[in-house]
Protein: Probable sugar-binding periplasmic protein
Organism: Paraburkholderia phytofirmans
Amino acid sequence: MRTQRGNLPKPAGRTAKLTVYALGVAAVLACGAARSAEVEVLHYWTSGGEAKSAQVLKQMLDEKGDTWKDFAVAGGGGGNAMTALKTRVIAGNPPAAAQIKGPAIQEWGDEGVLVSINDVAKREGWDKLIPPQISGIMKYKGQYVAAPVNVHRVNRLWINADALKKVNAQPPATWDEFFRTAEALQKAGITPVAIGGQQWQDAETFETVALGVGGAAFYEKAFVQLDQSTLRGPTMVKALETFKKIKAYTDKAQTGRDWNLATGMVISGKAAMQFMGDWAKGEFSVAGKVPGKDYLCVPAPGSQNAYTFNVDSFAFFKVRSADVEKGQKDLASLLLSPKFQEIFNLNKGSIPVRQGMDLSKFDTCAQRSAADFTSAQAKGTLVPSWAHDMVDTPAVEGAFYDVIGNFWNDDNESAQQAADKLAVAAKTR
Ligand code: GAL
């Protein structure tokens, strides 16, 4: 904090005492001002459940004496937000923090624009609080540059309980059961599957089907190791065929529909099921729906033993202001605090990333998610979500999006052709 002290005339006598006092007050006020930082945060949480969660963050940061400056960019999955981020960073004016994940954190680190928050992480013992599969992603060259807030499970199926009752079915555990139930729902005049025709939603659905059809070892080989023969092999072809078979059970008006509107179709009973990560629960909660009664949340068919994780995190950017730097550290510390982890995740549909939390306030969906996370970790079936930025570089992920989106929309392309294209896409630089 720079002061103008050098320019002040030398005080004398009583006036001197008053002046010294006044200077003290000024210094205190100045320090007080420095304590309140405006922290601009880029995020893409704009649906009902998401906005409620973002509000928790804003409120708790404000309670710390800082000011949240909202930089919300609508668009599920964050594609639009990433474009906005690039524009701001290139202009030399990054936000203090941005919601980015996975390998993109490393890419921003390579650009030299991220700032270390390692002192906060060290002081608060993050290495012990965060599972190692996740803490590694948050570090650049051994230093924390990002803070995680949650764990979302992606391989999920959401079901309207009444719709299922109408066709006298149980939640489908296998793909055969799934298609039998879908057929019955169709006959009963209910759209079996709600989907939004946006590339990231197609990609997410396919990712979930691939896990259910091929299992975690196949998934890992294909999407994490990018193994060429697995990408174009028979299991991938089967996964693509299964994915495409779902299309007959979706509605015609899906093009461009946002994910939360698709969730709305399941909430209202217009549609029966949706494949979506557990941020969907935030929408059910906002609508006042109760899990186990109004809706069911189950692992997607065939994927009961595996867990695709998607961790939201905030990376911190270099800014030219000591006040903002202080605000960044306040935010980093807040994100991992038990109180924030509980309230935020209760709203978001995810589970705390901070280990050892008391989950008694969480519903059965979340409690099951936490238990499954731990057991998948032990069994080696915990896999990162590629459709949600957790594995591949943005270039490879984008190329995969194109292949899957085109395959979904083009009824003349064969599953083998799409598999061959996935293998080519994996080589994108
Ligand atoms: C994911 C993100 C979630 C959720 C979802 C829909 O990528 O991790 O927090 O917001 O997109 O926007």
